[in-house]
Structures are given as structure tokens and as C-alpha cells.
Design brief:
This protein has about 220 residues and is of the alpha+beta class. The chain has two domains: about 30 residues; about 150 residues, Glucose Permease (Domain IIA) (Distorted Sandwich). The chain contains four helices and 14 strands. Helix 1 packs antiparallel against helix 2. It is globular, with a radius of gyration of 20 Å. It starts with a helix and ends in a 26-residue tail after the last strand.
Length: about 220
């Protein structure tokens, strides 16, 4: 950005004002594309926030393929969000919790796209998996700011998906939905669903629905 601004100033003094004007327009357009505005994170501990800005195109119930490969068989609600190239590219954590695992794999059926996923477990033992699919170009330059074992806050910035993509969020089957297909949502502010607990649970007591040792090496 600084280089482009410098070129604008140089052309303003040494070239025509028309070229300077065109460069200024390009500069403003890139500023718009790469914007990352502050968000007002709602104080709702059981809420699942949208990790990205975009439009919901699908809500269904499926077997969770990511946790199944970890030996945790579960049915999950899947919320699919389509980002456009003009949406804010910032990726945010949908819940507060610990990053249990991250994955990356090539989509076999989708023209060389890649899938990237990360799994967060809340302090109450709820598992949320966020998956994003990117084109080969976008996959080469996206950014993820998290590490397995790290704790994330609700709505915390955790990545940057240049030029957008498609995002799937796998949430517990009994979650109470607050969103619907066709809805436009804002990252870090809009609520997709609420986690539902029949009784108070905690990862530090015997009532954890997944069991204390649900994931090998979690205590490390």
C-alpha cells in the first residue's frame, strides 16, 4: 500500500493528473478490499458467532466428517456461508475455547480447491469445527493466526481469507438455530446458533459429555 501511495505522489508531480487519478482510484479500491473493521462482540457465552461475513446458502444435518476421523462419531448441524470477493476477509473464532486440531486437504471433486479446518472445544465440552474452501490462488496467500493447543476468545481474529471463499461450520446437533438460508451475516457479531445444555457441564468434572479423555494427549 505504501508503495502504491508513493507511485501516486510521483506520478502527480512528473506525469499527468489523469494517471494520478487512476492510481488513486486503484489505491482506494484496494483499501476497501482489505478493510478489517472493528466488531462489537456480543456478551453471549453460549452463542455461536459467524466466523466470516457473507450469505448463508445452506443449513442441514450431516455426519461430522472431521470429528469422525478423530474417533468421535456425531451428527452435526452444518451451516454453509458463501463469501463474496467484496466481503470483509477477516476470519473470527465462533466460540471461546481451545484449538484441538487443524487440518488441510485437497478437494478431490472441486477443481483443485483446498479445504482448511480447525476444531475448537469449549470449556463445557462442545465441539465446533470451522472449514473453509479456497481457490488455488486464494489458498496460496491466506493467513491463519492460530496454533493447536491455543485458547481463542469468542469473536477473536484468527485468520484472513483473501478474496473470500466458502465456509462450513459444524455445530452440535441440538444447537438452537438463530439464522436461516439466504440471510446476510456479519463476522464476529451475528449469532448463528446457541449451544444448549440440559445441565451445567464442565471440562474439569466427571459430567463432561465427551469424557475426560475424549482426545488423546489433550491434558498435555
Amino acid at each position: 500500500m505504501l508503495v502504491l501511495a508513493g507511485l501516486i505522489l510521483l506520478t502527480f508531480y512528473f506525469v499527468s493528473s489523469i494517471v494520478s487519478f487512476v492510481l488513486a482510484i486503484i489505491f482506494c479500491f484496494f483499501l476497501f478490499l482489505l478493510r478489517d473493521p472493528q466488531r462489537t462482540i456480543p456478551s453471549l457465552p453460549l452463542a455461536i458467532l459467524s466466523p466470516v461475513e457473507g450469505r448463508i446458502i445452506l443449513i442441514d444435518e450431516v455426519d461430522d466428517p472431521w470429528l469422525n476421523q478423530q474417533g468421535i462419531n456425531r451428527q452435526a448441524k452444518r451451516i454453509r456461508i458463501k463469501m463474496s470477493s467484496l466481503n470483509v476477509y477477516s476470519l473470527r473464532s465462533p466460540v471461546e475455547g481451545k484449538v484441538m486440531e487443524q487440518w488441510s486437504e485437497k478437494c478431490k471433486e472441486e477443481n483443485g480447491q483446498r479445504k482448511f479446518a480447525f476444531w475448537i472445544r469449549t470449556d463445557e465440552g462442545d465441539d465446533i469445527v470451522t472449514v473453509f474452501r479456497l481457490s488455488p490462488c486464494a489458498a496460496a496467500c491466506f493467513r491463519i493466526y492460530i496454533q493447536s493447543g491455543e485458547r481463542l476468545g469468542q469473536g477473536q481474529r484468527c485468520g484472513y481469507l483473501y478474496f473470500g471463499g466458502t465456509v462450513d461450520i459444524y455445530i452440535p446437533e441440538n444447537s438452537k438455530l438463530e439464522a436461516e438460508p439466504g440471510q446476510t451475516i456479519t463476522s464476529g457479531e451475528d449469532v448463528l446458533a446457541y449451544l444448549v445444555h440440559g445441565s451445567s457441564v464442565s471440562m474439569i468434572n466427571d459430567k463432561n459429555p465427551h469424557g475426560k479423555n475424549a482426545v488423546a494427549g489433550d491434558a498435555a
